[in-house]
Specification:
Elements (H helix, E strand, L loop, with lengths): L1 H14 L7 H16 L8 H5 L7 H10 L5 H5 L12 H15 L13 H24 L17 H29 L7 H13 L11 E2 L5 E2 L1 H28 L12 H26 L10 H23 L6 H18 L6 H16 L12
Antiparallel strand pairs: 1-2
Helix pairs in contact: 2-6, 4-6, 4-14, 7-12, 7-13, 8-13, 8-14, 9-14, 10-11, 11-12, 12-13
Keywords: Membrane, Transmembrane, Transmembrane helix
InterPro entries: Citrate_utilization_prot_B, NarG-like_sf
Protein name: Tricarballylate utilization protein B
Amino acid sequence: MLHLEALTRDARALALGEMPLTPYETEVGRQLQICNACRYCEGFCAVFPAMTRRLEFGKADIHYLANLCHNCGACFHACQYAPPHEFAVNVPQAMAQVRGQTYADYAWPPVLGALYKRNGLTMAMALAAGLALFLVLAVGVNGTLLHAPLAGNFYAIFPHNLLVLMFAPIFLFAVLALGLGVRKFWCDVSPGQATGAAVTEASLNVLRLKYLDGGHGEGCNESDDAFTLWRRRFHHFTFYGFMLCFAATSVATLYHYLLGLQAPYALTSLPVLLGTVGGIGLLIGPAGLFWLNLRRHPMHGDAAQKPMDRGFIALLFFTSLTGLALLAWRDTGAMALLLAVHLGVVMALFLTLPYGKFAHGIFRSAALLKWAIEKRQPSTLKLGDD
């Protein structure tokens, strides 16, 4: 029956000029039909109350719900229809497979969406290229990677304008690519009118990672049926560590252009303090997430995306590690080597931002905003209303 319904839905989509569902999308639609009849997990996260507002699940609905899912695993461990049951309901895994497809489908420019499918190789090549570039440049300036101490003067190795010329276009392209991709996603899911209350709620849900608490505050599931908040905590270390490092760079930019203060900055200066605290967070968070990734239940998530997940975690970790090492030994003769390695890792991170795991935060934030808007609208089904 569900197979016939899927064929009918695809025929209707083609008649309307829409793309038919892919096998992954069809599987999510099948499982959500079962979940919609059961509703045992309705209080777990935003996916399930959002699901109850629909009787059918088209392409846009499936993309929206897949990105609303935080892959915490709570519903899988609670589900009476999970494998080995013949219904084989595994919402976290099915949603993860569609999310990976979503990132590729909405990538800009579209031709680069293929980078998601071999993201581990993409990251490795970007890292190798970044490291080689800066090591060669450092040798070209100094004749060697070891030199007399330069009192932490990075610009004696790489002039400020050169760094801006190299990093600014890549960063701006990443912002443009992610922005255009999520804009297309936003238009396809037909979000409705955003209000101040909806934006505030969605922002708080993003900043608190609300839906990594399992819906009951005790946490989610990792390797077994036990609840844990560690995944949420390590995500917080990672997110806020990243934001503090970004803030450090932003403050240093203001120092340079507005106040005329050039690096190196004192250890007690605001850019260094922000960067140090953020860097520590970016050591703890990615290390913890990598540990959890290794221990994750094999039925959670999409195994094909593990190289992308782990590659992104590694880039964040080594960006922080090399940055802190550079800070610690910036007054030594090894500064050029440490600076070249750090900038190479940062370059790899920037190059892969629009086509790697970083995208999940952008798309998930958009999905959370749609849910905050949607829940304030009357349900045409008169089901699942607050």
